[in-house]
Give the backbone structure.
Amino acid sequence: MVRNTEMGSGNSHPLPQRDAISLSSLWFGILGAPIAWIGLELVSYITSTALCPVDNPAIAAAPIATIGRALLTINVLAGLLALVAAGVAVSNWRKTRHEMSGSAHRLLEAGEGRTRFLAMFGLLTSIGFLIA
């Protein structure tokens, strides 16, 4: 185990693998899928209301196929971004899963291995938003 001499108490550092992954990679794994989902919702709403002649009678009627293609493109892009974020989260988890001893249940109980905890949190967040 890595010892932190700055703490003075001889305790192991709670982030022994903090240099295994970058902070931006860790945050992208956590926030990439939720941001993709929020973007999907906002852009879908704006696109559908802008192209729908019922909601905006000043514009000429857009063909239903055009609206459908635009919404499908937005969904695919958001899904791809969420998949990339999930891939980064999986990579982060694989790099840090052995940071501290113990199972995943121990991970949720102790404050040790925070990089591992954040990698697991990013994995769960990404999977949850991919399902949503």
About this structure: Residues 62 and 76 are 21 Å apart (CA to CA). The mean pLDDT is 76.
